[in-house]
Amino acid sequence: MISPKQAQLIQFLxxxxxxxxxxxxxxxxxREQDSGQLPMILWQYGLITLEQLDRIFDWLERFGSMMExxxxxxxxxxxxxxxxxxxxxxxxxxxx
Length: 96
What we know:
- The protein contains four helices and two strands.
- Helices cover 49% and strands 12% of the residues.
């Protein structure tokens, strides 16, 4: 289950940093296996740059404590695959 804070982080990753949904989904799967933080997993797997990691930590410092609980549906076209129009669904149901 994704926390409200992580849901907003995912929104930031997709909209501000243009991280592909498939990269985020991969990191979320690995996060469940080793309980690491999402930004560090993205960086460890080479899915984001060190500059992007810095921007993520800056964002977390500014907005990390302002998260609200709500239901969020993430479904984005996966533009990292040029040969097909695949959609990666990152559905999230959050509770207070």
